[in-house]
Amino acid sequence: VQGNRLIRVDIGAVLSVAVSPDGQLVVTGGRDRTVRVWSRSGGAPLVLRGHAGSVTSVAFGSGPSRIISVSDDQLRVWDRGRKNTVFQVDSPEHNLYSAALNSDDSTIILQTLNAHIQIFDCSTCGDGTAIQTLAAQNITRALTDEERLTFHVE
Question: Average pLDDT of each block of 10 consecutive residues along the chain (154 residues)?
Answer without folding.
Answer: 54 86 91 91 90 93 87 90 85 84 82 81 59 41 59 51
